[in-house]
Amino acid sequence: MSSIFFYARKDAKKNWKTFFFVIIAIAISTANIIILNGFMDGITDGFLEKNMDTSSGHVNIYPDEQDKYIEGLGIKEKKLEGMDGVVAYSPRITAGGTLHYKEKFKTIKILALDPSKENEVTILLSKVDSGETLATNDRDGMLMSYRLADDLKVKPGDEATIVFENGKPRVFKIRGILHTGLAMDTNTIIINFEDAAEQLNLFNKASIILVKLQDETLSGQYKNKISEELGIQKIKEWKQEIESVLSSFKTFREISNFMNAIGLFTGAVSVGIVLYINILHKRRQIGILKAIGMKDLQVLFVYILQAVFLGAIGILIGDALGYAGTKYLEAHPFPDPTLGSLGPRFHLFLIYDASLVTMLIVILAAAFPALMASRTNIIKAIWGN
Amino acid sequence: MEIIKTSNLKKSYMLGKVEVKALNGVDTSVEQGEFVAIMGPSGCGKSTFLNLAGMLDTPTSGEIYLEGNDVTNMNSNTRAEYRLKYIGFVFQFFNLFNELTVMENVMFPMMLNKLSDYKDRSKELLNLVGLGDRLHHLPSELSGGQQQRVTIARSLANNPKILLADEPTGNLDTKSSIEIIELFRKLNQEREQTIVMVTHSPEIGGMADRILHFRDGTIENI
Q: Where are the domains of chain A?
């Protein structure tokens, strides 16, 4: 093996000018994978964190299939308070309605919550762009999503009328404009839990209860425990909640994988072509190698090993470029109207994955030229017949 | 002892649709320690014979024995192993590895053969061929005669039983040619090295112990 390593190294050194371009192609492919996947992770993580931060507890309790609301909210809250490992909970009411402001009106989604409880579970109420957030005992106050506010041209301090789904109207004062970076930015109104309960005649009822646990990894265990304690079947863990978000990223991930594949294919083709041409030029040398006693498999290894050298150098450079690029873009993300900013997120596994995949592709790309070299006919190679 | 023996050795090539009989039934043998020259006109089968005897190529029919072993139908790996350990080659166009230094060229077959003292031995061989002061030069920095001497040193790396030389002086001037043949003579006499050499030159051929005259793919009786 040492003789194979020796010759492969010497030959690669001699041809470094040719191989320089191969190394650059490999480096760019590797860096491309790291940065692109970093972007995908950054966007996915950003969406997931926002969802977790604003829309979900570690465990969410829903009404059973036949019910519209969770009944007996007071008793259920008491039971949750008594459970070890439950840090906080926040009941919410969701309803539909219309919002009237001057001559305009819009269909809205009403989200009613108790600010003091909600703040223990999510940071939704901190996502206020202008004005102030909703206070615990703020009756008749509301937060309005920023797109709705833009459409109606309202500002904090204005008053608007909410007509609830049962037809009951009530005037609320706009306290602040909400900007979450999520779908709820379109047409959501947040009001106090008590106001909604009063308007909709929903006493001791909720549409959902968000539960925060001491240890989110125990969500599966608590799902069953809460189900038993509260007598409710429909309970979802946070992982189930984000499944829908993850699935919406599937297409983006596929596009990203396709782009990675194109990058890798380009790198692989360059490696394959350069090695192939190099081997064509080295036919006589390969003939001599075999004439002096090198076996077919050893010749194959020489050129595979050479590809591994080139791959290793290219991957190291690509890792460094990918790391630097990802870190730079992480620190200087692109502004985005929805998420606030759009940037990659660096994880060490990005480097491992990119390195491993690129090395495998490089070896595969080298396999054909190496096989061709190993099957070289000695007579034809030396005498050019 | 017969170190090379061939029996009814035939080799044909297809040149387009025409079959060319390069060797047409060669029966011959070379004794251990002999210095044999193969001569004959171009296309008579000299190099083909050398390639078959050196296990670089396989015959169409017939048998080849090296040290009494039938090597005719050996597989590719075993042939490579034989070439590495028992046969040394000297080519007309030197065929050195240009990316390796003189010393590396000589020690490389020993590395392939997993010998441990390859550095000392390559120096020893290069001293033997008179290039002890050129160890770290690249082949491109040497004259044709010097390059051929490196090839000879390389061919002796693994102490081969047989040294096959295909027109070793064909690309050299007269002075260098004489030096090379004298080196062959020295190796043959001092180390009892078996040498089979193809040459066009009657003067060079005349320095061998015996001459095999080839014509139309067979050995002529002169």
A: 2-51+248-383, 63-233
